[in-house]
């Protein structure tokens, strides 16, 4: 059969590491060779007998002789009443005058591959040793360690107790902490399940960590700039005491019985031990402490220490570990009242992803940050860094930026979201992809949605008919009253009066009382209809009926949440209009460019009821004409410049500079050119004249009062504020009263008779 490799169990880890290193260097690892094939069965048995004889005849007797000799020396020097009184009377004379720094020494400092440093105070170039091998303290410690190696934990514990007071009196903190660590291990091995010595074990470990920390402080101060301790920052080289404390902390976290039901205490010890470590060591300890905070139910402390671990990993140039820590802490602060900490986490994570080259996710975080950092809580320098990184990603990494922008189409995408909103986001992006699929010449530009810069207050939205031209053209000749667009109540009163007079005339009854009765009956019918609509709720609501070629004005509040000025250009409305004649759709949603006639792009429109100049909106496109035999999605979309019907709607544009922390009212206009269903979906603009930004409008519908369940749940219906039903051309009448002949004073006296002219103007597109 196949021969067995007798050394595989002992050299497997080494050869795995060797093969991995060779592969990373681009070389082929050597073929695996079996070792020990030249040994026969008798050879193996002979080697086994030799090892057994060496242990029984040489090693074990030598250990017994060492224990016996050391026990005799310790008994003569430390045990008995005479030795107790002698130690009490003459203990102070053993002081050699060495400082604490020279006692501890620095010869064993771990530097992660760097050269170790030594204390300045030495004899003959060698560090001074506090306890020589022939001193009684060194012999007691050697005896205790030998008994611990032989698993005689009770005898070993008694020896550690015998020597610990000497270390404490001599202020040898490193030795004192090491003895307490070994005593704690003895308690644990004597009682692994913590039924008798759990309190003693934890006290020993806590004392050991405390003294390790004190020893590390003294070593750091004594070393000075050699380890970076005098500057107040993290040391570049960890002292021996710090490394011993770190090792002890990792031992505590590796055994479940050691920290069972003591997660809070262990977490505090780990966090305190990280204060003197290098960035990498501190990151490991902080991450371990955060896991214990999480298991103890302290989720805020878990997130905070995980965030600090991420910062330490980043300082140690461990990018992947820093990213993992930041993302682990991000979920805790999401959706709570800790907005500042949440933003701090997102800024740290964004910077980490930016340095790692993961630009799509970094774009999402930076886009969310620039819209939420307000109130001066983030410095101007940090805000400028956010904007510069955002612009740099959009300039140099367009493909990654487009992937990140697609993920932001979900309005609730703030480190989470609902399935409904995610489905809506996917359908929006899929609609853009369908246009690109069927239109060969189309291309998509980068546009960032839902960035909240500038911040648009959706609750301030108001839609009205364009009336600026009325006030401007007639302001010079207006002599009586003020310009008013009229109210719906006045119009209803006029309609009631007209309908009542028509019915009275149909009955050949000119009595004034009959007309008044008809008016009252008409008002009662209207009140009944209003109550019926209110009971029906949103089902009875409908979009407002508008006239074709009648400009509409949309007003809303826009603010700058940053502490730096932002420049906005080409601010315009984004809309979608479905024609009632052929069902074609004209929309400007999404930054999809379809090449068209260059000369038609600069065409402008003007209307009687507005002084503004209207142009076709950016990224406007029209769906193909569908025939009876055409399959859906086969024909390409077209540019309105190349279409016979032209654009279905036109918009106006404006530029704006928003100062830091200010809010302004923006008025934008849109004019439908065909009949159909118009929906205003959002607003877009250019940030710093190079980055397209889009904000979709979110309008809350009215509360439903038609059922008891809807009233209890505060259910809301659909909002029709931004939806309009575009009908055929309609007249738009304005009425004014001026003195006869255009001359005379508008002020008249009581009882005076004067001649006035009723001037009626039609600013609409249809005769009246």
Brief characterization of the structure:
The protein has 768 residues and is of the alpha+beta class. Helix content is 46%, strand content 15%.
Overview of the structural elements:
The protein has 768 residues and is of the alpha+beta class. Helices cover 46% and strands 15% of the residues. Strands 4, 6, 8, 9, 13, 15, 17, 18 and 19 form a 9-stranded mixed sheet that branches. Strand 8 and strand 9 form a beta hairpin. Helix 14 runs antiparallel to helix 15 and helix 16 packs antiparallel against helix 17. The longest helix has 38 residues. It is elongated.
Annotation keywords:
nine-stranded mixed beta sheet, 23 helices, 768 residues, 21 strands, four-stranded antiparallel beta sheet, alpha+beta
Distance between the termini: 108 Å
User: Count of DSSP helices?
Assistant: 23
Helix content: 40-55%
Low-confidence stretches: 92-125, 411-421, 468-472
**Structural category:** alpha+beta
Beta content: 15-25%
Task: Average the pLDDT over all residues and give the rounded result.
Answer: 78
Gross morphology is elongated
Give the helix/strand layout.
Elements: H1 8-24, H2 41-78, H3 81-90, H4 100-104, E1 122-123, E2 126-127, H5 136-149, H6 153-169, H7 173-190, H8 198-223, H9 240-254, H10 256-259, H11 263-273, H12 279-295, H13 299-315, H14 319-333, H15 339-356, H16 359-369, H17 380-396, H18 398-407, H19 419-438, E3 443-444, E4 447-449, E5 455-465, H20 468-474, H21 488-506, H22 512-536, E6 544-547, E7 552-559, E8 566-579, E9 585-587, E10 592-593, E11 604-607, E12 610-615, E13 621-622, E14 649-651, E15 654-658, E16 663-672, E17 676-687, E18 691-696, H23 708-713, E19 723-727, E20 733-739, E21 756-762
Parallel strand pairs: 4-18, 6-19
Antiparallel strand pairs: 1-2, 3-10, 5-7, 7-16, 8-9, 8-15, 8-17, 9-13, 11-12, 14-16, 17-18, 17-19, 20-21
Helix pairs in contact: 2-5, 5-6, 6-7, 7-8, 8-9, 9-11, 11-12, 12-13, 13-14, 14-15, 15-16, 16-17, 16-18, 17-18, 21-22
